[in-house]
Here is the input.
Amino acid sequence: MLNAIFAIDSECGIAKDGVLPWPKNNDDMKHFVMLTKGATVIMGKKTWDAPDMPSPLPGRRNIVICSNPQPSDKCTQMTIEGLLDNISDFKDAYVIGGAMLIDSLKDYIDEVHLTRFHGSYNCDTFVDLEFLGNFMLVHSDDRSGYSFEHYVRDM
Here is the structure.
């Protein structure tokens, strides 16, 4: 099963200058760890190289999607085609970003775990959430300044 987990601001912004633009949120980090610990996380090369990204994310299998995969002892690198050819091998995997990778894999994602930070954070990278029209909101937890949302593909 392919899942996605990411955060956005009120304008669907996901990043500014390659990093998360909102202040560190411990609840969001705990939520991310709870869902992804022991799982496979799939990210684009820009996400992997982001200055605020621990590389690799500990306690997870890290897969980095790039056009020119290189051997690495920290992660598995593969092309998007290679990932799609082996998609059935991933029983518990989370696409964690960036925006282009989420868009490329939107037809393969079964569940979305979305954190919405209220307000605009002057982002320069955005996610098109139109694909969520094929999903059903199954849970929403509104907090002070942000909310957690869980969507499942509408079969």
